[in-house]
Specification:
heterodimer; A: about 260 residues; mainly alpha; MetI-like fold; about 80% helix; flat; B: about 250 residues; alpha/beta; Rossmann fold; nine-stranded mixed β-sheet; 9 strands; about 25% strand
Protein backbone atom coordinates (compact mmCIF):
# COMPACT_ATOMS: atom_id res chain seq x y z
CA UNK A 1 0.00 0.00 0.00
CA UNK A 2 2.62 2.45 1.16
CA UNK A 3 4.93 1.10 -1.47
CA UNK A 4 2.56 1.85 -4.35
CA UNK A 5 2.07 5.37 -3.01
CA UNK A 6 5.85 5.79 -2.95
CA UNK A 7 6.04 4.48 -6.50
CA UNK A 8 3.35 6.90 -7.66
CA UNK A 9 5.15 9.82 -6.04
CA UNK A 10 8.38 8.72 -7.64
CA UNK A 11 6.87 8.66 -11.13
CA UNK A 12 4.96 11.89 -10.57
CA UNK A 13 8.24 13.63 -9.73
CA UNK A 14 9.89 12.26 -12.86
CA UNK A 15 7.05 13.45 -15.08
CA UNK A 16 6.81 16.86 -13.39
CA UNK A 17 10.55 17.47 -13.73
CA UNK A 18 10.41 16.71 -17.45
CA UNK A 19 7.29 18.80 -18.01
CA UNK A 20 8.92 21.73 -16.24
CA UNK A 21 11.87 21.58 -18.62
CA UNK A 22 9.51 21.53 -21.63
CA UNK A 23 7.63 24.48 -20.15
CA UNK A 24 10.83 26.44 -19.52
CA UNK A 25 11.90 25.70 -23.09
CA UNK A 26 8.54 26.94 -24.43
CA UNK A 27 8.56 30.13 -22.34
CA UNK A 28 12.17 30.84 -23.27
CA UNK A 29 11.37 30.70 -26.97
CA UNK A 30 8.10 32.64 -26.72
CA UNK A 31 9.16 35.37 -24.31
CA UNK A 32 12.62 35.69 -25.82
CA UNK A 33 11.10 35.88 -29.31
CA UNK A 34 13.67 33.39 -30.50
CA UNK A 35 13.32 32.72 -34.23
CA UNK A 36 12.27 29.17 -35.10
CA UNK A 37 15.42 28.46 -37.13
CA UNK A 38 17.47 29.08 -33.97
CA UNK A 39 15.21 27.31 -31.53
CA UNK A 40 11.67 26.08 -32.21
CA UNK A 41 9.00 25.74 -29.53
CA UNK A 42 8.27 22.25 -28.23
CA UNK A 43 5.05 22.23 -30.26
CA UNK A 44 6.84 23.17 -33.52
CA UNK A 45 9.33 20.45 -32.79
CA UNK A 46 6.68 17.80 -32.45
CA UNK A 47 4.83 19.12 -35.52
CA UNK A 48 7.92 18.47 -37.60
CA UNK A 49 6.98 14.78 -37.34
CA UNK A 50 4.37 15.59 -39.98
CA UNK A 51 7.09 16.62 -42.45
CA UNK A 52 8.17 14.60 -45.45
CA UNK A 53 11.01 12.87 -43.61
CA UNK A 54 10.72 9.16 -43.00
CA UNK A 55 10.81 9.34 -39.21
CA UNK A 56 9.73 5.84 -38.57
CA UNK A 57 12.34 4.26 -40.81
CA UNK A 58 15.19 6.50 -39.64
CA UNK A 59 14.37 5.95 -35.98
CA UNK A 60 14.21 2.23 -36.61
CA UNK A 61 17.64 2.29 -38.26
CA UNK A 62 19.27 4.23 -35.44
CA UNK A 63 17.60 2.09 -32.79
CA UNK A 64 18.87 -1.04 -34.56
CA UNK A 65 22.39 0.35 -34.55
CA UNK A 66 22.25 1.34 -30.90
CA UNK A 67 20.73 -1.92 -29.71
CA UNK A 68 22.86 -4.02 -32.05
CA UNK A 69 26.12 -2.40 -30.98
CA UNK A 70 25.08 -2.50 -27.35
CA UNK A 71 24.10 -6.16 -27.31
CA UNK A 72 27.31 -7.05 -29.12
CA UNK A 73 29.25 -5.06 -26.52
CA UNK A 74 27.54 -6.85 -23.63
CA UNK A 75 28.28 -10.25 -25.17
CA UNK A 76 31.90 -9.48 -26.03
CA UNK A 77 32.57 -7.44 -22.88
CA UNK A 78 31.21 -10.04 -20.48
CA UNK A 79 32.67 -12.88 -22.55
CA UNK A 80 36.18 -11.40 -22.52
CA UNK A 81 35.91 -10.67 -18.80
CA UNK A 82 35.04 -14.32 -18.19
CA UNK A 83 38.03 -15.46 -20.25
CA UNK A 84 40.23 -13.03 -18.32
CA UNK A 85 39.03 -14.42 -15.02
CA UNK A 86 39.50 -18.05 -16.10
CA UNK A 87 42.90 -17.61 -17.72
CA UNK A 88 45.10 -15.15 -15.89
CA UNK A 89 47.75 -15.28 -18.63
CA UNK A 90 45.16 -14.32 -21.18
CA UNK A 91 44.25 -11.24 -19.13
CA UNK A 92 47.86 -10.21 -18.67
CA UNK A 93 48.47 -10.53 -22.38
CA UNK A 94 45.28 -8.98 -23.75
CA UNK A 95 44.21 -6.35 -21.22
CA UNK A 96 46.98 -3.84 -22.06
CA UNK A 97 46.17 -4.35 -25.72
CA UNK A 98 42.50 -3.71 -25.14
CA UNK A 99 43.31 -0.50 -23.27
CA UNK A 100 45.63 0.73 -26.03
CA UNK A 101 43.13 -0.11 -28.76
CA UNK A 102 40.48 1.72 -26.80
CA UNK A 103 42.59 4.87 -26.97
CA UNK A 104 42.15 5.00 -30.73
CA UNK A 105 39.52 7.67 -31.33
CA UNK A 106 36.80 5.60 -32.97
CA UNK A 107 35.48 8.70 -34.71
CA UNK A 108 38.77 8.95 -36.58
CA UNK A 109 38.23 5.46 -37.93
CA UNK A 110 35.00 6.49 -39.60
CA UNK A 111 36.50 7.39 -42.96
CA UNK A 112 38.41 4.10 -42.92
CA UNK A 113 35.25 2.17 -42.21
CA UNK A 114 33.70 3.68 -45.33
CA UNK A 115 36.61 2.34 -47.33
CA UNK A 116 36.40 -1.04 -45.70
CA UNK A 117 32.72 -1.69 -45.26
CA UNK A 118 30.82 0.77 -47.41
CA UNK A 119 27.86 2.66 -45.94
CA UNK A 120 25.24 0.93 -43.88
CA UNK A 121 23.96 -0.25 -40.58
CA UNK A 122 26.77 -2.78 -40.09
CA UNK A 123 29.67 -0.34 -39.69
CA UNK A 124 27.58 1.85 -37.38
CA UNK A 125 26.77 -1.11 -35.17
CA UNK A 126 30.48 -1.76 -35.11
CA UNK A 127 31.32 1.83 -34.11
CA UNK A 128 28.67 1.78 -31.36
CA UNK A 129 30.11 -1.52 -30.18
CA UNK A 130 33.74 -0.36 -30.10
CA UNK A 131 32.85 2.77 -28.15
CA UNK A 132 30.70 1.13 -25.49
CA UNK A 133 32.22 -2.27 -24.77
CA UNK A 134 35.20 -1.23 -22.63
CA UNK A 135 33.28 -0.10 -19.53
CA UNK A 136 31.40 -3.40 -19.57
CA UNK A 137 34.64 -5.35 -19.88
CA UNK A 138 36.37 -3.39 -17.12
CA UNK A 139 33.56 -3.44 -14.56
CA UNK A 140 32.81 -7.12 -15.19
CA UNK A 141 36.48 -8.04 -14.85
CA UNK A 142 36.57 -6.11 -11.60
CA UNK A 143 33.38 -7.74 -10.36
CA UNK A 144 34.70 -11.23 -11.03
CA UNK A 145 37.84 -10.43 -9.03
CA UNK A 146 35.87 -9.00 -6.13
CA UNK A 147 35.55 -12.06 -3.93
CA UNK A 148 36.22 -12.04 -0.21
CA UNK A 149 39.34 -14.15 0.41
CA UNK A 150 37.67 -15.66 3.49
CA UNK A 151 34.74 -16.72 1.35
CA UNK A 152 37.14 -18.52 -0.97
CA UNK A 153 38.62 -20.22 2.09
CA UNK A 154 35.17 -21.25 3.20
CA UNK A 155 34.44 -22.92 -0.14
CA UNK A 156 37.92 -24.44 -0.39
CA UNK A 157 37.65 -25.84 3.13
CA UNK A 158 34.68 -27.80 1.77
CA UNK A 159 36.79 -28.96 -1.16
CA UNK A 160 34.62 -26.81 -3.43
CA UNK A 161 35.66 -26.82 -7.06
CA UNK A 162 36.76 -23.89 -9.18
CA UNK A 163 33.48 -24.22 -11.05
CA UNK A 164 31.45 -24.07 -7.84
CA UNK A 165 33.29 -20.95 -6.76
CA UNK A 166 32.53 -19.47 -10.16
CA UNK A 167 28.84 -20.34 -10.38
CA UNK A 168 27.87 -19.86 -6.75
CA UNK A 169 30.00 -16.89 -5.77
CA UNK A 170 31.93 -15.14 -8.54
CA UNK A 171 29.25 -14.93 -11.19
CA UNK A 172 26.30 -13.81 -9.05
CA UNK A 173 28.67 -11.52 -7.14
CA UNK A 174 29.79 -9.85 -10.34
CA UNK A 175 26.29 -9.01 -11.60
CA UNK A 176 26.06 -5.62 -9.84
CA UNK A 177 29.31 -4.68 -11.55
CA UNK A 178 28.13 -5.95 -14.92
CA UNK A 179 25.05 -3.76 -14.66
CA UNK A 180 27.04 -0.78 -13.50
CA UNK A 181 29.15 -1.08 -16.67
CA UNK A 182 26.07 -1.67 -18.79
CA UNK A 183 24.46 1.52 -17.53
CA UNK A 184 27.51 3.57 -18.43
CA UNK A 185 27.65 1.89 -21.82
CA UNK A 186 24.12 2.92 -22.83
CA UNK A 187 24.98 6.55 -23.44
CA UNK A 188 28.17 5.55 -25.26
CA UNK A 189 26.29 3.18 -27.57
CA UNK A 190 23.90 5.97 -28.55
CA UNK A 191 26.77 8.38 -29.16
CA UNK A 192 28.62 5.74 -31.17
CA UNK A 193 25.70 5.04 -33.47
CA UNK A 194 25.07 8.74 -34.13
CA UNK A 195 28.73 9.45 -34.80
CA UNK A 196 28.70 6.56 -37.25
CA UNK A 197 25.72 8.05 -39.02
CA UNK A 198 27.33 11.46 -39.20
CA UNK A 199 30.37 9.97 -40.88
CA UNK A 200 29.03 7.27 -43.09
CA UNK A 201 25.37 6.62 -43.57
CA UNK A 202 22.44 7.07 -45.88
CA UNK A 203 19.81 6.53 -43.24
CA UNK A 204 19.19 6.97 -39.55
CA UNK A 205 18.50 9.96 -37.31
CA UNK A 206 22.10 11.20 -37.43
CA UNK A 207 21.97 11.18 -41.19
CA UNK A 208 18.57 12.87 -41.10
CA UNK A 209 19.99 15.67 -38.94
CA UNK A 210 22.65 16.42 -41.53
CA UNK A 211 19.98 16.46 -44.26
CA UNK A 212 17.64 18.88 -42.53
CA UNK A 213 20.53 21.07 -41.41
CA UNK A 214 21.06 22.05 -45.04
CA UNK A 215 17.49 23.39 -45.14
CA UNK A 216 17.87 25.00 -41.71
CA UNK A 217 14.88 22.93 -40.58
CA UNK A 218 15.71 23.38 -36.93
CA UNK A 219 12.45 21.87 -35.59
CA UNK A 220 13.29 18.61 -37.38
CA UNK A 221 16.81 18.69 -35.97
CA UNK A 222 15.38 19.12 -32.49
CA UNK A 223 12.98 16.29 -33.14
CA UNK A 224 15.82 14.05 -34.28
CA UNK A 225 17.72 14.79 -31.08
CA UNK A 226 14.59 13.99 -29.09
CA UNK A 227 14.13 10.68 -30.89
CA UNK A 228 17.77 9.76 -30.27
CA UNK A 229 17.26 10.58 -26.62
CA UNK A 230 14.14 8.40 -26.50
CA UNK A 231 16.11 5.48 -27.91
CA UNK A 232 18.72 5.94 -25.18
CA UNK A 233 16.11 6.27 -22.44
CA UNK A 234 14.33 3.14 -23.68
CA UNK A 235 17.54 1.13 -23.64
CA UNK A 236 18.44 2.49 -20.20
CA UNK A 237 14.97 1.56 -18.96
CA UNK A 238 15.39 -2.00 -20.21
CA UNK A 239 18.78 -2.28 -18.48
CA UNK A 240 17.37 -0.94 -15.21
CA UNK A 241 14.47 -3.38 -15.50
CA UNK A 242 16.82 -6.31 -15.98
CA UNK A 243 18.90 -5.13 -13.05
CA UNK A 244 15.79 -5.07 -10.86
CA UNK A 245 15.15 -8.68 -11.82
CA UNK A 246 18.68 -10.02 -11.43
CA UNK A 247 20.29 -7.97 -8.67
CA UNK A 248 19.06 -7.71 -5.10
CA UNK A 249 18.42 -4.14 -3.91
CA UNK A 250 21.23 -4.20 -1.40
CA UNK A 251 23.79 -5.50 -3.86
CA UNK A 252 23.15 -2.87 -6.55
CA UNK A 253 25.95 -0.45 -7.25
CA UNK A 254 24.64 3.07 -7.41
CA UNK A 255 25.90 5.05 -10.35
CA UNK A 256 25.08 8.54 -11.36
CA UNK A 257 22.13 8.93 -13.74
CA UNK B 1 45.06 -45.64 24.68
CA UNK B 2 42.58 -43.43 22.98
CA UNK B 3 43.92 -40.85 20.64
CA UNK B 4 42.82 -37.22 21.23
CA UNK B 5 40.45 -35.77 18.62
CA UNK B 6 43.06 -33.23 17.55
CA UNK B 7 46.73 -33.77 18.06
CA UNK B 8 49.15 -30.97 17.19
CA UNK B 9 52.78 -31.36 18.06
CA UNK B 10 55.60 -28.99 17.24
CA UNK B 11 53.65 -27.56 14.32
CA UNK B 12 55.59 -25.07 12.26
CA UNK B 13 54.52 -22.99 9.31
CA UNK B 14 56.65 -20.78 7.10
CA UNK B 15 55.14 -18.50 4.47
CA UNK B 16 57.29 -17.88 1.47
CA UNK B 17 56.77 -15.07 -0.96
CA UNK B 18 59.21 -13.52 -3.42
CA UNK B 19 62.16 -15.30 -1.91
CA UNK B 20 61.31 -13.98 1.53
CA UNK B 21 60.51 -16.33 4.36
CA UNK B 22 58.16 -15.48 7.17
CA UNK B 23 57.82 -17.76 10.16
CA UNK B 24 54.12 -17.60 11.02
CA UNK B 25 53.94 -20.45 13.51
CA UNK B 26 57.07 -21.76 15.17
CA UNK B 27 55.99 -24.37 17.68
CA UNK B 28 52.40 -25.18 18.46
CA UNK B 29 51.42 -28.26 20.38
CA UNK B 30 47.87 -28.88 21.47
CA UNK B 31 45.63 -31.84 22.17
CA UNK B 32 41.89 -31.39 21.94
CA UNK B 33 39.31 -33.88 23.09
CA UNK B 34 36.05 -34.42 21.26
CA UNK B 35 33.37 -31.95 22.36
CA UNK B 36 35.73 -29.41 23.88
CA UNK B 37 35.48 -25.68 23.23
CA UNK B 38 39.02 -24.43 23.01
CA UNK B 39 39.72 -20.72 23.16
CA UNK B 40 42.78 -19.83 21.18
CA UNK B 41 43.84 -16.44 22.45
CA UNK B 42 46.74 -14.21 21.53
CA UNK B 43 47.69 -10.81 20.10
CA UNK B 44 47.12 -9.85 16.46
CA UNK B 45 49.53 -11.47 14.06
CA UNK B 46 50.39 -14.30 16.42
CA UNK B 47 49.47 -16.94 13.88
CA UNK B 48 46.11 -17.95 15.36
CA UNK B 49 44.46 -17.80 11.98
CA UNK B 50 47.30 -19.81 10.47
CA UNK B 51 46.68 -22.57 13.01
CA UNK B 52 43.00 -22.56 12.04
CA UNK B 53 43.83 -22.77 8.37
CA UNK B 54 46.11 -25.72 8.98
CA UNK B 55 43.29 -27.43 10.88
CA UNK B 56 40.87 -26.64 8.04
CA UNK B 57 43.22 -28.27 5.58
CA UNK B 58 43.70 -24.97 3.73
CA UNK B 59 47.41 -24.80 4.51
CA UNK B 60 50.11 -27.41 4.78
CA UNK B 61 52.38 -27.32 7.78
CA UNK B 62 56.15 -27.38 7.36
CA UNK B 63 57.14 -29.35 10.41
CA UNK B 64 55.59 -31.24 13.27
CA UNK B 65 52.55 -33.47 13.48
CA UNK B 66 48.90 -32.69 12.73
CA UNK B 67 46.40 -35.45 13.36
CA UNK B 68 42.67 -34.86 13.42
CA UNK B 69 39.87 -37.32 14.04
CA UNK B 70 41.30 -39.40 16.81
CA UNK B 71 39.90 -42.89 16.49
CA UNK B 72 37.28 -41.85 13.95
CA UNK B 73 37.69 -41.03 10.33
CA UNK B 74 38.03 -37.36 9.55
CA UNK B 75 37.81 -35.75 6.14
CA UNK B 76 38.88 -32.12 6.16
CA UNK B 77 36.50 -31.21 3.33
CA UNK B 78 33.50 -32.85 4.91
CA UNK B 79 34.03 -32.47 8.64
CA UNK B 80 35.01 -28.84 9.12
CA UNK B 81 32.68 -25.88 9.52
CA UNK B 82 34.06 -22.36 9.51
CA UNK B 83 32.88 -19.01 10.90
CA UNK B 84 34.80 -15.83 10.21
CA UNK B 85 34.83 -12.31 11.60
CA UNK B 86 32.61 -11.21 8.72
CA UNK B 87 29.47 -13.25 8.23
CA UNK B 88 30.30 -13.61 4.51
CA UNK B 89 26.66 -14.23 3.70
CA UNK B 90 25.93 -14.02 0.00
CA UNK B 91 23.90 -10.85 -0.50
CA UNK B 92 21.74 -12.35 -3.22
CA UNK B 93 20.68 -15.39 -1.25
CA UNK B 94 17.98 -15.69 1.37
CA UNK B 95 19.13 -16.70 4.83
CA UNK B 96 18.04 -20.30 4.34
CA UNK B 97 19.85 -20.51 1.00
CA UNK B 98 22.95 -19.04 2.60
CA UNK B 99 22.81 -21.68 5.31
CA UNK B 100 22.49 -24.31 2.59
CA UNK B 101 25.63 -23.25 0.71
CA UNK B 102 27.97 -25.90 2.20
CA UNK B 103 25.35 -28.59 1.59
CA UNK B 104 25.21 -27.55 -2.08
CA UNK B 105 28.97 -27.56 -2.39
CA UNK B 106 29.25 -30.99 -0.80
CA UNK B 107 26.38 -32.28 -2.91
CA UNK B 108 24.30 -33.40 0.08
CA UNK B 109 20.67 -34.41 -0.49
CA UNK B 110 18.85 -31.08 -0.62
CA UNK B 111 15.49 -32.10 0.81
CA UNK B 112 17.01 -33.33 4.08
CA UNK B 113 19.44 -30.44 4.16
CA UNK B 114 16.60 -27.95 3.84
CA UNK B 115 14.85 -29.59 6.79
CA UNK B 116 18.05 -29.44 8.75
CA UNK B 117 18.65 -25.81 7.75
CA UNK B 118 15.26 -24.88 9.20
CA UNK B 119 16.09 -26.65 12.46
CA UNK B 120 19.46 -24.93 12.66
CA UNK B 121 17.98 -21.52 11.90
CA UNK B 122 15.61 -22.13 14.77
CA UNK B 123 18.47 -23.24 17.00
CA UNK B 124 20.51 -20.10 16.38
CA UNK B 125 17.43 -18.01 17.13
CA UNK B 126 16.56 -16.82 13.64
CA UNK B 127 13.19 -18.48 13.28
CA UNK B 128 11.00 -16.46 10.93
CA UNK B 129 13.96 -14.99 9.07
CA UNK B 130 14.49 -17.94 6.70
CA UNK B 131 13.31 -15.99 3.68
CA UNK B 132 14.89 -12.66 4.53
CA UNK B 133 17.97 -11.34 2.81
CA UNK B 134 21.17 -10.68 4.77
CA UNK B 135 20.89 -6.88 4.57
CA UNK B 136 17.62 -7.09 6.47
CA UNK B 137 19.44 -8.59 9.47
CA UNK B 138 21.61 -6.94 12.10
CA UNK B 139 25.29 -7.83 12.44
CA UNK B 140 24.62 -10.21 15.31
CA UNK B 141 21.83 -11.95 13.43
CA UNK B 142 24.07 -12.31 10.38
CA UNK B 143 26.65 -14.06 12.54
CA UNK B 144 23.95 -16.38 13.85
CA UNK B 145 23.18 -17.30 10.25
CA UNK B 146 26.90 -17.86 9.62
CA UNK B 147 26.99 -20.24 12.59
CA UNK B 148 23.99 -22.15 11.24
CA UNK B 149 25.79 -22.36 7.90
CA UNK B 150 28.86 -23.83 9.60
CA UNK B 151 26.68 -26.54 11.14
CA UNK B 152 24.59 -27.52 8.10
CA UNK B 153 26.78 -30.40 6.97
CA UNK B 154 27.06 -31.71 10.52
CA UNK B 155 30.83 -31.31 10.72
CA UNK B 156 32.80 -32.75 13.62
CA UNK B 157 34.93 -29.65 14.04
CA UNK B 158 33.91 -25.99 14.00
CA UNK B 159 36.62 -23.41 13.48
CA UNK B 160 35.77 -19.86 14.48
CA UNK B 161 38.05 -16.97 13.66
CA UNK B 162 37.08 -14.02 15.87
CA UNK B 163 33.44 -14.49 14.93
CA UNK B 164 32.20 -11.71 17.21
CA UNK B 165 35.09 -9.32 16.64
CA UNK B 166 33.04 -6.96 14.48
CA UNK B 167 30.05 -6.76 16.81
CA UNK B 168 29.35 -4.09 19.41
CA UNK B 169 30.18 -4.97 23.01
CA UNK B 170 26.64 -5.75 24.15
CA UNK B 171 25.75 -7.86 21.13
CA UNK B 172 29.04 -9.62 21.56
CA UNK B 173 28.29 -10.67 25.14
CA UNK B 174 24.88 -11.85 24.08
CA UNK B 175 26.40 -13.87 21.27
CA UNK B 176 28.91 -15.39 23.72
CA UNK B 177 26.04 -16.83 25.72
CA UNK B 178 24.30 -17.93 22.54
CA UNK B 179 27.41 -19.73 21.37
CA UNK B 180 27.68 -21.55 24.69
CA UNK B 181 24.08 -22.67 24.30
CA UNK B 182 24.58 -23.74 20.68
CA UNK B 183 27.73 -25.59 21.69
CA UNK B 184 25.97 -27.52 24.43
CA UNK B 185 23.06 -28.35 22.11
CA UNK B 186 25.14 -29.36 19.12
CA UNK B 187 27.93 -31.06 21.09
CA UNK B 188 30.53 -30.01 18.53
CA UNK B 189 34.23 -29.58 19.04
CA UNK B 190 34.90 -25.86 18.61
CA UNK B 191 38.17 -24.01 18.22
CA UNK B 192 37.44 -20.39 18.97
CA UNK B 193 40.07 -17.84 18.01
CA UNK B 194 39.83 -14.49 19.78
CA UNK B 195 41.99 -11.70 21.06
CA UNK B 196 39.59 -10.88 23.81
CA UNK B 197 40.89 -12.41 27.00
CA UNK B 198 37.52 -12.12 28.74
CA UNK B 199 35.82 -13.89 25.87
CA UNK B 200 38.45 -16.62 25.89
CA UNK B 201 37.91 -17.33 29.58
CA UNK B 202 34.13 -17.05 29.49
CA UNK B 203 33.75 -19.47 26.59
CA UNK B 204 36.54 -21.99 26.73
CA UNK B 205 36.51 -25.31 28.45
CA UNK B 206 40.19 -24.92 27.87
CA UNK B 207 42.30 -22.00 26.82
CA UNK B 208 45.40 -22.08 24.67
CA UNK B 209 47.53 -18.96 24.76
CA UNK B 210 49.72 -18.05 21.81
CA UNK B 211 52.37 -15.39 21.95
CA UNK B 212 53.26 -13.43 18.87
CA UNK B 213 56.05 -13.17 16.41
CA UNK B 214 56.11 -16.08 15.64
CA UNK B 215 53.33 -18.03 17.28
CA UNK B 216 54.48 -20.18 20.12
CA UNK B 217 52.24 -22.03 22.51
CA UNK B 218 52.80 -20.19 25.78
CA UNK B 219 50.33 -22.10 27.88
CA UNK B 220 47.35 -24.35 27.66
CA UNK B 221 45.13 -24.85 30.67
CA UNK B 222 41.69 -25.99 31.65
CA UNK B 223 39.13 -23.38 32.70
CA UNK B 224 37.28 -24.88 35.60
CA UNK B 225 34.23 -22.68 35.70
CA UNK B 226 30.86 -24.37 35.84
CA UNK B 227 28.56 -24.61 32.87
CA UNK B 228 26.16 -23.16 32.03
CA UNK B 229 28.24 -20.04 32.25
CA UNK B 230 26.73 -16.63 32.83
CA UNK B 231 27.97 -13.10 32.34
CA UNK B 232 28.19 -12.42 36.07
CA UNK B 233 30.89 -15.09 36.26
CA UNK B 234 33.14 -12.34 34.97
CA UNK B 235 33.10 -10.91 38.48
CA UNK B 236 33.95 -14.30 39.97
CA UNK B 237 37.42 -14.30 41.66
CA UNK B 238 38.40 -17.44 39.76
CA UNK B 239 37.58 -15.65 36.47
CA UNK B 240 40.04 -12.96 37.46
CA UNK B 241 42.68 -15.55 38.22
CA UNK B 242 42.38 -16.89 34.67
CA UNK B 243 42.40 -13.51 32.97
CA UNK B 244 45.44 -12.42 35.01
CA UNK B 245 47.21 -15.60 34.03
CA UNK B 246 46.66 -14.82 30.35
CA UNK B 247 47.64 -11.16 30.70
CA UNK B 248 50.84 -12.29 32.36
CA UNK B 249 51.61 -14.76 29.57
CA UNK B 250 51.11 -12.02 27.02
CA UNK B 251 53.40 -9.70 28.99
CA UNK B 252 50.63 -7.21 29.64
CA UNK B 253 50.50 -7.30 33.39
Amino acid sequence: MDKTADQARHWALIIIAHLLVVLAWHLFVVWGEVPAYVMPTPLDTVLSLGGEYNWFHNTWVTASEVFGGYILAVIVGVGLALLFSWFAMFAKFLMPLVVSLNMIPKVALGPLFIVWFDYGIGPNIFIAFTICFLPILITTTRGLQEVEPDLLDLVRSLNGSRWQIFTKIQLPGSLPYVFSGMKVAVVLAVAGAIVGEFIASEEGLGYLMLQVQVDLDTPAMFMAVLMITFIGVALYGIVIGLERIFVKVDARLETSA
Amino acid sequence: MSEPFIHLEGVKKVYRSRGQEFLAVSDVSLDVEMGELISLVGPSGCGKTTVLKILAGLHDHDDGTVRIGGNETFEAGRDVGMVFQQSLLLKWRKIIDNVLLPAEILGLPMRESRERARDLIQMVGLEGFEDNFPYELSGGMQQRAAIARALIHDPKLILMDEPFGALDALTREKMNLELLRIWSESKKTIIFVTHSIQEAVLLGSRCAVLTSGPARMADNFEIELDYPRTLDMKTHPQFGVYTRRIYKLLGME
